[in-house]
Specification:
Blueprint (H helix, E strand, L loop, with lengths): L1 E8 L5 H15 L6 E8 L6 E8 L2 H8 L2 H11 L7 E6 L8
Antiparallel strand pairs: 1-3, 1-4, 2-3
Length: 101
C-alpha cells in the first residue's frame, strides 16, 4: 500500500466549501479511482482552519495514476481555491495498519 499524508490550511469562511468538495470527491470520484482504499481527515483543535489527512491507495502506481489524472487535477484546483496556501504533502509506503475492531 501507498499513502499521502497532508496538511491543509483552509481560508476562513471557506471550510464548508472545502468539506463539500471532499464529500463530492468521495461520492463521485472515489468509485472510479483504481486502487483507492481509504481516507481519514482530522480537523485540528489547536490550529483554526487546519486539517490533517491520510489517503491510502493499494499501490504507488495507482496513487501516481490518480495524481496525474487531469480530472483529479481539476478537482485539486477547485480545492486550492479554498486554501490559504498549497497543501503540505508527504508520500510513502504504508509500513503497517491496525484493524479498527
Amino acid at each position: 500500500m501507498f499513502a499521502t499524508v497532508y496538511r491543509l490550511k483552509v481560508t476562513p469562511g471557506r471550510e464548508s466549501d472545502a468539506l463539500a468538495l471532499n464529500e463530492a470527491w468521495y461520492r463521485e470520484r472515489a468509485p472510479r479511482v483504481k486502487g483507492f482504499v481509504s481516507t481519514c481527515i482530522v480537523k485540528s483543535i489547536t490550529t483554526d482552519g487546519e486539517y490533517l489527512g491520510v489517503t491510502i491507495f493499494d499501490s504507488k502506481e495507482n496513487y501516481t495514476r490518480n495524481a496525474n489524472d487531469p480530472v483529479q487535477h481539476q478537482w485539486y484546483l477547485r480545492m486550492r481555491e479554498c486554501l490559504e496556501s498549497d497543501p503540505e504533502w508527504n508520500d510513502g509506503p504504508v509500513i503497517s495498519t491496525f484493524p479498527t475492531n
